[in-house]
Design brief:
By secondary structure, this protein is an all-beta fold. It is built from 3 helices and 50 strands. The strands form 12 sheets. Strands 27-28-29-30-35-34 form a 6-stranded mixed beta sheet, with no helix packed on it. Strands 1-4-3-6-9 form a 5-stranded antiparallel beta sheet, with no helix packed on it. Strands 11-17-16-13-14 form a 5-stranded mixed beta sheet, with no helix packed on it. The N and C termini lie far apart (80 Å).
Length: 687
């Protein structure tokens, strides 16, 4: 480490740590600064200056690469020496004026991710700072912190949930006080109702340190709607928090209606199949799909395998399957690394989503013995995802690198996902925790747990997926073992950290990377599957797609997972499956490049918008369709019937429909009836 001290005009001379007196002069306070480097600590240079001074203008202290200066910021330099990588270095103590403001000028010589800084005054936390690019200025004021000051810095409770499904209330606290925190209480309310309190004990949270917490009482929303979640620090070390201004977090919770379980209706009669999109809508070897959790966006996302040289892509379908359906294909600028040969896509409850690359090495070096690949975290914000605004690393939010040839993934909560590792033939929990932001490269914040007691075999051709799905009611993870032609499940709440280190990796530093042992693993289904690929669940039913037969097999979870029936999609090649918000089954076929939807011929749950005053009956229909309309609607009001491709199939008017509309000439499938000024009414023709 190279350190250079410069004597400022207005301050006392500062000496190395060993030479600083134990106590500062009157009017001064002792300040230390912890510098935490990233994977390239050698690129760090920083200065401590009085606020208002420019870089290189009377610096109080210079640390890191002291043979360089401010003009070298962001010039693609990566010299030897300086600070070590992924290390925290304590600089100081400095005797600074009480009440004075000072700047940390952080420089990265290369010009990407900078070091982070934590400032302590008399041992108490004042602030933490980080930045990106070539140069960033951080300002702090020298004051003595409160003795007890625990801040609730973030709620990591998902924004989107479903009625009847348990919600994990979680967040992050940080000790802003001068004393260590050994216990604290966290409380939450829903819409100002009864308070639920959880006590966290057995900790030793030093000043400046952070801790994630999970409230011991889950919230189970009873009905769809919007609810306000308010969390706050209720006590610290058994006493009052002395700074209540940073104790609370409030967020709106969007509760979606529960997805109906209509599997019995699918099997009652032959269901209706509709191909919604194909290669004309930019589908190129689609392998998985998922709905955006914000249902007001009405989006279904499909992920394409594509080829290694370009990386995969996504196709976002807005109003999927409806007459006004639109689609948008997007490929990130660095998809060849972060989304190479993707096998899966899963949305989180915070609007982020993750993808699982199916490649051996995301750096496109397939001969390497130390692969650098794994699942990637993305934002679904249209101003971020796939926008070429964030530099050469594209728009990705984070990436972890211990699951080569990943076969699929499932969301748990916030930024936590479960992954089927095709190379190591097991299952791995990835918690990104706080991401590094779009286009950055610090991945060390993660917690990763590997479950080697789960054993799967991937497709030797590296094409057919082995997906997984998490039951958030029970915390069982259901896993497709493609090569074993079976279905397993893992109790994600079971097991403990095994001694020693994992045999595979890591290839970079993480907060925690451990093997788990003693977990509960069960084999559920061992017969009747040829090439199992996709998986989903709804209510009491588990669904598995068979790539070889093109079938969706339905199992009764309440009856020892007995096979209840099969739905033929008409062509082999099916992979990902997803039960949509209205209970219909959606799927992708990687052979025919198709997105399809299956709906029960019985018409259970098909749209009859009571609030609009309309009702179509019977639904499904075979020959004649009747329409009940609001009072006062003009008899000559135009009515159109539109098929799933958006083409007009019939023109009529309200009078004719009231007396029965002849639909005997329409082919089987999904249609919409359009009456000017009113919501579209969806119906099915089935014979």
């Amino acid at each position: 480490m190279n350190i250079r001290y410069i004597l400022p005009v207005a301050l006392v001379a500062l000496a190395p740590v060993s030479e600083v007196p134990a106590q500062c002069a009157a009017g001064e306070l002792e300040v230390t600064i912890d510098v935490t480097t990233d994977d390239f600590g050698n690129e760090t240079l920083w200065q401590l200056v009085e606020t208002g001074n420019a870089c290189d203008e009377s610096p109080i202290f210079i640390g890191g690469q002291t043979d360089y200066d401010c003009s070298d910021a962001g010039t693609d330099l990566s010299p030897d020496g300086g600070y070590p990588n992924n290390t925290t270095i304590t600089e100081g103590p400095f005797c600074l004026t009480e009440g004075g403001t000072y700047d940390i000028i952080s420089i990265d010589l290369y010009g990407d991710a900078q070091a982070s800084f934590t400032v302590l005054v008399d041992g108490g936390y004042i602030g933490a700072f980080s930045g990106d690019g070539g140069m960033t200025t951080h300002t702090f004021t020298v004051v003595i912190p409160f003795a007890r000051d625990l801040a609730l810095t973030e709620s990591t409770t998902g924004f989107f949930c479903e009625a009847g499904s348990p919600v994990t209330v979680a967040g992050t606290v940080q000790n802003f006080g001068g004393s260590a925190v050994t216990s604290f209480d966290i409380a939450y309310t829903i819409d100002g109702g009864a308070e639920q309190t959880s006590t966290i004990t057995g900790i030793n949270l030093a000043p400046g340190a952070t801790r994630d917490f999970v409230h011991e009482v889950q919230w189970s929303p009873a009905a769809a709607g919007t609810n306000v979640l308010e969390m706050h620090v209720a006590s610290v070390n058994g006493d009052t928090d002395l700074n209540p201004t940073n104790d609370s977090q409030s967020s709106d919770m969007i509760v979606n209606p529960a997805i109906p379980d209509r599997m019995d209706d699918f099997l009652a009669t032959t269901p209706v199949l509709t191909i919604v999109a194909d290669a004309d809508q930019d589908l190129l070897v689609p392998r998985d799909l998922d709905f955006h959790p914000d249902r007001s966006r009405n989006e279904l996302w499909v992920i394409n395998k594509d080829v290694p040289s370009t990386g995969g892509s996504t196709v976002m379908f807005t109003a999927p399957g409806e007459p006004d359906m639109d689609f948008l294909q997007q490929r990130d600028i660095n998809a060849r690394h972060f989304m190479s040969l993707p096998t899966g896509i899963a949305f989180g409850d915070n609007g982020n989503f993750s993808t699982s690359p199916g490649i051996w090495d995301a750096n496109q070096n397939q001969a390497t013995t130390t692969p650098f690949t794994g699942i990637t975290l993305w934002s679904s914000d249209p101003a971020i995802y796939a926008m070429n605004l964030f530099g050469p690393l594209g728009s990705h939010l984070d990436m972890l690198h211990v699951t080569p040839k990943a076969q699929g993934l499932a969301h748990e909560r916030w930024n936590r996902y479960w992954v089927v590792d095709g190379h190591n033939q097991d299952v791995v929990m990835h918690d990104f925790r706080a991401d590094h932001g779009p286009g950055n490269d610090y991945h060390g914040n993660a917690i990763i747990h590997r479950y080697p007691e789960v054993s799967i075999t991937r497709d030797p051709g590296d094409h057919i997926v082995s997906h997984c799905v998490l039951d958030k009611h029970t915390n069982w993870l259901y896993v497709v073992d493609h090569g074993g032609q079976r279905i397993l499940r893992l109790d994600t709440r079971s097991g403990s950290i095994a001694p020693g280190s994992p045999d595979f990796g890591p290839f970079e530093s993480y907060v925690e990377y451990e093997d788990m042992e003693g977990a509960t693993v069960e084999v559920l289904i061992t017969t009747g599957l040829q090439e199992p690929a996709g998986i989903d669940l709804v209510g009491n039913h588990l669904l598995v797609s068979d790539h070889a037969t093109g079938e969706i097999i339905i199992y009764d979870m309440s009856n020892a997972f007995a096979e209840q029936g099969r739905i033929s999609t008409g062509a082999p090649g099916i992979m990902g499956i997803e039960v949509g918000p209205d209970g219909r089954i959606w799927y992708v076929n990687a052979t025919t490049n198709a997105l399809g939807v299956v709906e029960p011929a019985s018409g259970v749950g098909l749209a009859e918008t009571a609030t609009s005053g309309f009702r179509l009956h019977p639904n499904p229909s075979s020959n004649v369709l009747y329409l009940t309309v609001p009072a006062g609607l003009a008899a000559n009001t135009g009515v159109q019937v539109i098929d799933a491709t958006g083409r007009i199939s019939l023109n009529s008017n309200v009078t004719m429909v009231l007396h029965g509309l002849d639909v005997s000439g329409l082919a089987n499938g999904s249609y919409s009836m359009v009456v000017a000024g009113y919501p579209q009414q969806r119906f099915v023709i089935a014979r």
